[in-house]
Amino acid sequence: MYMEWTALTVGIIGEFASIAAAIFSYPLWRESRRMVVLRLNVHGVGDTSVLPLATNGPGQWQIVCGLALHNDGDREARNWRLRLSIRQAGMGISMSVQPPTIVRFPYPIGDRSVSEVLAEAPAESITSNAPVSLGTRCAFNFDGEPPFVETEYTLDADHFRTKKGLLRFEIEGPLVSSRNNFTSYPNTHIRRG
């Protein structure tokens, strides 16, 4: 009889211990399942969806747009970074951003010119479904009349698998279309100014 009570007591204590372990470990398990899902969006400056293509001197052009990062995941994106990499000769990027965002302007990596926009501190995070504008404007400057202007980009953040993409502005007569394989607005048009 004593053994039966002991076995019953041990069984009940074991059940309570299992339930307590599950209750206290659930928040840690849930946190490990949350994800950061970043995407890049190209948009018009201000309230317009039209991106101007303006002359920037004799034989020089400039596409002016805005860039924003969206987090479609359920975890904050901390220590995020956007890297724009250019191979085309005669092309450059300029950006105007507001602190605390940091911009690192062109530095060479192999045959590329690289510019970066990144968070200054982990507190500058991108929360779920709250897009973050990367400054007031971004200008892609280029020479001549190429059929397209493109830059490779890399998105990175804590708890996020690095994503690479191609931002391509196709010049179609008086209009230019922007194709970005991470944005939900793939056919933004750019007007000559």
Output the keywords:
193 residues, alpha+beta, Immunoglobulin-like, 2 domains, 13-stranded mixed beta sheet, 1 helix
Q: Unreliable stretches, pLDDT < 50, 5 or more residues? A: 180-193
* Main β sheet profile: 13 strands, mixed
Which CATH first-tier class of the largest domain would you pick? Mainly Beta
CATH topology assignment of the largest domain: Immunoglobulin-like
- Helix % is 10-25%
CATH architecture of the largest domain: Sandwich
The CATH homologous superfamily of the largest domain is termed Uncharacterised protein YcnI-like PF07987, DUF1775
How many strand units? 13
Determine the structural class based on helices, strands and strand pairing. alpha+beta
| Cα-based radius of gyration, to the nearest Å | 25 Å
What sort of overall outline do the alpha carbons produce when their principal axes are compared? elongated
Strand content: over 45%
In whole angstroms, the N-to-C terminal distance is 94 Å
Mean pLDDT: 75
> How many domains make up the coordinates?
2
Tell me the series of helices and strands, N- to C-terminal: HEEEEEEEEEEEEE
Written account of the structure:
This protein is an alpha+beta fold. It has 2 domains: 1-33; 38-192, Sandwich (Immunoglobulin-like), CATH 2.60.40.2230. It is built from 1 helix and 13 strands, in the order αβββββββββββββ. Strands 1, 2, 3, 4, 5, 6, 7, 8, 9, 10, 11, 12 and 13 form a 13-stranded mixed sheet that branches. Residues 180-193 have low confidence and may be disordered.
